[in-house]
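Quick start: read one record
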Amino acid sequence: MEADFTERRRHIRIFFDSLEEASCLFIADEKAVTLWSASVLDLSLGGLHLTLIGDADLSVGDRLILCNLTHRTGQVCDEQISMEVRWLFTRPEFRRLYVGCRFLHLPEKSRGHIANLISVKLLEASTVRSGTLNN
């Protein structure tokens, strides 16, 4: 039996060039007191892929609340956005935990800010590609 690795994404996804380009703060649930800080590796209107150092007690299906999303150009959104952990990746030799999250409810204001960031990143990538092709 052959694995089907085709992507079934509904939203355009952008990738960040470094761990410092985009970051977020989140909590494990509404009653949590620990605020986690993570780097964002990619982002779409459907969710995000984050990475954090250390061992967080997370499992597939856990509900998280995104509290803040920041890009190198400034704050993207600070509304609470509910998310669900869709996948986790870690290995003993890595110091990082990689987490794929799906937005469960994306408020309109945050949707607009994230869509704007996606547009800016796509325009940057297009400019870089056209500059490379013209050289």
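Residues 90 and 97 are 5 Å apart (CA to CA).
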